[in-house]
Amino acid sequence: MNSPVTPQAPVGLPSPSRRPSLPGPAGARTVQAAFAFGLAALNLRIAVASLSPVLTEVQRDEHLSSFGGGALSTVPVVCFGAFAFLAPRLTRRFGPHRLLWCALLALAGGIVLRSVPGVLALFGGTLIAGAAIAVGNVLMPQLIKHDFAGRAGLMLGCYSLALSGGAALAAGVVVPLESVTGWGWRQVLALGAVPALVAALARLPELLVPDRRSPDRRQDRAERAGSDPAAPALRALWRDRTAWAVTLYMGLQSLGYYAILSWLPTLLQDHGMSDSQAGWMLSFSSFPGMAASFAAPWLQQRLRPAFVAPLASGLLCATGFVGLFTSPVSGAYVWMTALGLGQGLAIGLALGYIVARSPDAHHTGQLSTMAQGAGYLIACLGPLGLGLLHSMSGGWSLPVAVLLAVLVAQTAAAFGASRDRHVLAS
Prior knowledge:
By secondary structure, the protein is mostly helical.
């Protein structure tokens, strides 16, 4: 959050009698692989979430307008979409495990470069970090299906939890670290490279001591050689309704998430909340989001009809948006709880649909490329669009109203994404 669909096993879940085991030796190696996977997942939101609490400072020091601040917040999301389409080719050349390790090193380098004085370094480092995260975004669902097929629901929950946890950690500690250390935003943001380097270090045992008995190693070699005839052409998915439903749901929920991630502290600051309190509210929303995203695979598998879960997510997000529209400061904890639950559930469901709607790891990689490539290109309209609407209207009522309209479209896309069928099914 696969074996062929049977009456006893819902789509996306292995049959109990043929549930595959984790690859490689059991015990310590399995724990180490899962730990390394979790550390990598934790880094896929830190670089983005750490920027928004200090965005006002960045705009002041680098002389950026509201549009410039929106553009800076949009660069990573554009990268998530554009560079996602390179991931399949890079995976065939290097293999998913080695490619993820390289992406983590590139992420650390981009974060450091972003902290160098100058607009060029700011945007250039942000672009490199966004490209690295884009590759990781595509690889993670594929690795879940590939390496943890027997525990896909659990690992999807852990993946979603790590994404939310990374965002919460980054949003919550940036401003307090500035106060405690006396550092500026450049030095504090540069610290985001440390967890990326730690995650890369944790993956070294898997690269240096490969388990040649493991079937997935043979599969990696086949993928690098481009010899797998089962991998579907990506172009076939563009004609599939289910694939498009998953893509639209991923893109629209990401649009709302990154719009809030980029502009929520500024919105609250404009209504009189202090910088530190506004950053804390963004961080606080991630805690209910972590619980909801972890529970999403379980809810996806058990709630019937399947549309109930995304509908609940939409209603929770709507409650949060309406609260930001009417009384953003006085009821901030209520609105952030509702919004965190709704958005956490939505990202967990979106990632779960990528895995559940594909019959095997090859299809998962292709669907992940489409859903996250096209989906994040849709999502990039969120941070930039909200900045433009705020500049045009001089307030936040119009931007929040547009987010409510997007939420309606997101919930409609869930009708197709939650259907119990695989992509490219005849």
